[in-house]
Amino acid sequence: MSNNTTALIIGIIFLLGLFAGGGAVYLFSNEESTSDDIENDLNAGENLDDDLKNEFDEKSDDSDNTDTQSNNTSNLKVLALHGGGESASSFQNQQGMQDLRNALPEFEFIFAQSPENGGVWINDVPGGKDSYTEDRGWADTSINYLDTFVENNGPFYAILGYSQGAAMIPIYLANSDSSFDKALLFNGYMETLHHGLMDTVEEVAPFDIPALIFEGEQDVFAYGSAELAGNFSSPLHLVSSSADHHLPFSSDETFDQVVEFLRNSSSESVVGNNNSSNQSNETMDDDEPIPLAEQCLGGHSNLAMHIHPWINLTVRGTEIPIPNNMGIDTSVCPNAMHLLHTHDDTGKLHIETYEPITVNLSLFFAVWNISESGDSTFAPLFLDLENVTITVDGVEQTVGIHEIIFEDSIYIDVVFDDALPDSDGDGVDDASDICEGYDDNTDWDNDGIPDGCDDDDDGDGVDDQNDQCPGFDDSLDSDGDGLPDDCDAVDGNVYDPSDLGLFWVDKFLCQNGTGVGVDDYNTTGDDNHICSVTITLENDTVTISSNGIPNHDLESGPGCCTSTQSYTWVVPRSPTNDTTGGHNSANCPEANGDYQCAADRGDIAIAINGVPIFGPEDGPGGDAVASNEGVYEEDRQHIWLGLCHGHSGPGGVYHYHADGNCVHWHPNETAGEGWRDYSFPSSTNTGEASDVIGIAFDGYPIYGVYGDDGTGQIVEMKSSYRLKSGQNGYNGIDDYEYVSGLGHLDVCNGHFGPTPDFPQGIYHYHSTIENGIGEMGFPYFLICYHGEVSDGGDGGDGSDPCAGYGETWGPGIGPPPDGCGGGGGPGQQSSDTTLLDQQYVFDWTNLVILTILSVIGLRLIRQRS
Fold first, then answer.
1. What is the pLDDT of residue 832?
2. Is 208 helix (H, G, I), strand (E, B) or coil?
3. Domains, the chain, ranges and CATH?
4. CA 180 to centroid of chain Cα atoms
5. CA distance 730 to 631
6. In whole angstroms, what is the distance from residue 451 CA to residue 449 CA?
7. Of 213, 469, 540, 853, which one is least surrounded by beta carbons within 10 A?
8. How far apart are CA 659 and CA 717, in angstroms?
9. CB–CB of 683/716 below 8 Å?
10. 318 closest CA partner among 398, 409, 395, 419
C-alpha cells in the first residue's frame, strides 16, 4: 500500500469519526486502551500503517450490543441485565457494578442492551398500574433477543440482573432453554401485574440453581426481594442495612459475600453462620440450648427466615417509641445482632433466623430488656396483665404474649391502661360522673348541669322537649308571629335557602352533649364511644367541629379500630352556584371542567353526626362500594364496609363511602332489634321524603335516598352514572360514565327541587344506592360540587398524589406512586446517570486519539506532496 493511500485512509477514518460521532469513536475505544498506546504508535514511524490496520481489524470484531470487562475468552462469563429505563453502558458505570468487576477480574461481565423502546425489558401494562395482562407472550421480544444474545456471546456461567433486570431473570429462566450455573438478583421484584408471565414462572419454579437475592433496607422496592427468593430452590438472601436502590458498594457489609458467592463453586461456601440452628459458633452448647433472646446473628447471609412485623406500644395513654438499632451490638451480642432487632424507630421489626422457627411476642420484650437495660417502661405490663390489650391487624386477642406469633407485615398494638373506668369517655371517672352516659364537660347554659342531664340546655326557661328554637331564647319574638327571632326567617319560612346557618344548627346531631354511647362490633366489650359536634355561625360561614364518632353502633372493618378525631370544617353559610368553569376534571371527567371535582379519596362532605363522608374509591383506587357488593374482587388490599357502608381507615378515621341513611334510624328495642338489623332500603323506606343526612363542602345539603321526583311523587332517587362497557369498578372513577336522563340526578349527583325543609326548592344532593337501570348507584353521594367551595372546606380538584402512606402504599402494601419517593420501580427505574444510547456517547479520550491521527495524516500528505 502506498503512503498516499495510507494518508487517504486515515483522512477518511477521521471524517467518519466526526460525522458518526460516538459510533465511530466506539470503534477505537476500549477500556484497556490508553494514550500510551497512541504514543507507541507515533514512535513506530513507518510501521504505523500496519499497526493501525491491525487495530482497526481487531476493534471491528467487537459486538455492537455488548460491553465486556476484557477480551480474555478464558474468563467465566456473566450475563448482566440493566434496570428498566437504563442502558447497558449506564449499568456498567454504576459504582456497585464497577466495585464488583474490580473485585472479580477473573470474570468477564457482558452487558446486554434491552431491545424494547425506553430501555425496558418488560413493557408496562396498558392502563398503568391499575391494570393487568394475562398475555403469556408479553415479554417474547426480550426473551427471543436474550436467546440470540446467549447463543452468539455465550456460554455464560451466571446471569445477573438489577431492578427490572432482576425481575426479568425468573421470566427468562421459565421461558428459555438457556442454562446458567448461578443467578444474582439485585434490588428486584416480581412483575405481578403481568399475570400470564407469573403463571408461567409458577409452573416452572423453583429453579434448581444457586441464587443470590440482594435487597437494601433503604430501598422502597425491597418488598419484592422475598417474592423473588421464593422462585429458587437454594436462595441466599442478603440484606444491606445501608444500601438503597443500587448494587452493594465495596464498603457494604454484604459485598464480600456477593464476591464469594460468584467466585465459589457452590453457594454453600459463602462466609457466614452455616450452622443448622440459630445458635452462634461461639456460644453453642450441645447440652443446654441457648434462649432465643441470647442468640446472635453475625450478618444477613444464609437466612432461612427474614420477616418484618410492626409493633406499636402504648402505656397509660403515652405511645412508647421503639428504639433505633434495638438488639444490635448489645452486651449479649457484641458487634452482632439479636434474632429480633430494629434499624429505625418506626416500629418495624426485623426477625431473621438461620432456620424456619416460630417466634412469639415475648421475644420482643426479652430483647428489649437486654438492649435497653435499666428502662422500666414496660414494668406495668407484667405487674398488671388484666389491663393489657393486644390487637393484631385490628383484631383484639384473647391470648398472652407467648401465644401471639410474629408473621411478616402484621401490625401488633400493645396497650396498657389502668386508669379508673370512664364508661362514657368524658374524662370523668364513673365514680365522679355527674351525668352518666353523657359528657359532663358540655354545659351550654353554664348552670352546672351537663346538657345531657339538663331539661333546658339553653336556659331560656322552656324545657328542651317544647323548645321551638334550641340554643336560643324562645321568649324573644319581635314580630309576634310565634316564632322566636333567632329561628324566624324574613320570608316566613322556617329555613331560608339563601342562609342555611340556622338550618345546620337545628339539623346537626350530637350537639350539646346529646350524643349517646355506641359500640364498635369489631372489638370486645362495650366501647361506649360518644359522638360530639359543635356548630359555630359566622357572618358568611358555618364552622363544624366534630370528634368523628357516629351516633350509631358501627363496624370498623380491617382498619379497626375507630377512635376519636379532632375535625374542623368551614363551609359557606349561603351556597352559591359555581359558574366559573375551567376546573381540573381528573377526578370527575364527566363534568368536563364545569364544576370543581370532589376528591377521589378522603373526605368530600360531612354527615350530620360529624362523621366524614369519603369519595367512592378505596385505598388501592377501586370502587369501595362495588367491591363490597361483589361486583368485582378487590385483590390489592383487604377492604370491606360495615354497617351503613362505613368503616375505619388508618388512624381510626371512621367514614362513610355510601348510604349514610342510618344516621336517622334507631333499632326497635321492643321488637328485639339491634343495629345489625339495619338494612337498606327496608330500614329507611317510610314513604316520606328522606331527612337531610349531610352537608357538602360547597354548603349545599345532602339528603337521603328518597325525594321529590319533580312531579310531587316521593321516589327512590337514582344516579345517572353507569359502568362503561366491560368494566366492573376495579379502576374506580375511571370505570364509570354519565348518561343524562338515566336517573333523576345530574352529573354531580344532585338536582334543584323541593325538600321537606325547603318546599320552595333548593339545590341538593342525594345518597344513591342504585342508578336508573338498577345497577350500582355510583358516586353514592357526590362527585363534584355544584356550588363554590370555600377555602376552609376540603373539596378540591384532586388530592396529593403522594398521600396515602400506610393505606395505599408502604411496608407490606406496595410501592409508592410514580415520583413519590425511592428510585425506579416496575418498568420505570430511575438512574443517577444520564442515559444515552451507546453509539452516541462522545468520549474526550477518543477525540484526542482522532486529533492525533488527523495530524499524522496531514503530515504524511505534506511529505508526499
1. 30
2. strand
3. 1-62 (no CATH), 76-267 (3.40.50.1820), 292-416 (no CATH)
4. 36
5. 9
6. 6
7. 540
8. 12
9. no
10. 419
Q: Which residues pair with 406 in a beta bridge?
A: none
Q: What are phi and psi of 550, to 5 degrees?
A: -75, 170
771: nearest Cα among 623, 669, 637: 623
CA separation for the pair 738, 747 (Å, rounded): 6
Give, in order, the Cα–Cα distances in Å from 469 to each of 465, 474, 485.
11, 6, 9
CA angle 154, 157, 159 (to 5 degrees): 90
C-alpha cell at 560: 379497626
569: buried, middle or exposed (CB in 10 Å: 19+, 13-18, 0-12)? buried
% of the chain at pLDDT higher than 90: 43
- 499: which DSSP letter? B
Q: Quote the mean pLDDT of the chain.
A: 79
The C-alpha atoms of residue 201 and residue 182 are separated, in whole angstroms, by 17
Cell 351537663 found at: 450
The lowest-confidence range among 37-46, 105-114, 194-203, 204-213 is 37-46
Instruction: Identify residue 163 by its one-letter amino acid code.
Output: S
- CA 548 to chain centroid, in Å, comes to 24
The CB density around residue 837, as the number of other CB atoms within 10 Å, is 13
Measured at the CA of 435, the angle between CA 434 and CA 441, to 5 degrees, comes to: 80
Cα angle for residues 230, 235, 239 (degrees, 5° grid): 95
Q: Could you tell me if 114 and 82 are in contact, meaning their C-beta atoms sit under 8 angstroms apart? A: yes
C-alpha pair distances (Å), 608 with each of 95, 245, 517, 615, 772:
59, 48, 17, 17, 27
Question: What letter represents residue 848's amino acid?
Answer: V
Spatial contact of 556 and 522, defined as CB atoms under 8 Å apart: yes
Contact predicate 144/168, CB 8 Å: no
Q: Are strands 411-416 and 310-315 parallel, antiparallel or unpaired?
A: parallel
User: 3-class DSSP state for residue 464?
Assistant: helix
d(CA 705, CA 695): 15
Query: And the C-alpha cell for 371?
Result: 438492649
pLDDT at position 635: 83
How far apart, in whole angstroms, are the C-alpha atoms of residue 741 and residue 716? Answer: 15
64 vs 96: which has the higher pLDDT: 96
C-alpha to C-alpha distance for 457 and 453, rounded to whole angstroms: 9
| CA angle 499–500–502, rounded 5-degree value | 105
The pLDDT tens digits of the residues spanning 26-79 come to 333 333 333 333 333 333 333 333 433 333 333 333 334 444 443 444 589 999
Residue by residue, what is the 3-state secondary structure of 718-769? CECEEECCCCCCCCHHHHEEECCCCCCCCCCCEEEECCCCCCCCEEEEECCC
Burial class (CB in 10 A: 0-12, 13-18, 19+), 715: middle
| Lookup result for grid cell 410474629 | 406
Q: Are 366 and 373 in contact (CB under 8 A)?
A: no
Separation of first and last alpha carbons in the chain:
17
Q: In what order do the strands lie in the sheet with 310-315?
A: 318-320, 310-315, 411-416, 388-392, 395-396
What pLDDT band is residue 674 in, cutting at 50, 70 and 90?
Answer: confident
8 and 826 Cβ atoms separated by less than 8 Å: no
Q: DSSP 3-state assignment of 847?
A: helix
Tell me, what amino acid is at 820? C
Instruction: Work out the number of other CB atoms within 10 angstroms of the CB of residue 276.
Output: 8
Cα(779)–Cα(346) distance, integer angstroms: 37
What is the average pLDDT across 836-849? Answer: 46
